[in-house]
Amino acid sequence: MKNTITYALALxxxxxxxxxxxxxxxxxxxxxxxxxxxxxxxxxxVHSKPVSNAGISVSADMPSMPMAHNMRQIIATPxxxxxxxxxxxxxxxxxxxxxxxxxxxxxxxxxLHEPLVIGISDKSKQPKSSHDNTMAxxxxxxxxxxx
Length: 147
What we know:
mainly beta, Immunoglobulin-like, globular
């Protein structure tokens, strides 16, 4: 019993340390030319350092309506002169709570989820939606070396 508790404690501590070393995203989106279309920029970092030359695709879904509103994957492209910054245009079907899903294919493999609220009625909050990554769902196939 003592060995089981010690193993469980060690496993819990190790997973906490591993999560601290994972990739993070921070996304900002601004209204684009048409309704429910947004020009977005995402900052990708590992250990608080920007990741350059990453392969990133983005999709979105509405957690409140599983499989009802799913956006196809699009490619995020690097922003010239801004290391770790990538841009994409997001076209959604409706306002509400969305989840951005980032699939990173290089220089490491990972999947990150980030919440995004679209269509807030308060005009003081409307022009820019920005969220720090709080729901990381790292795929089981990711590399442990994120450098």
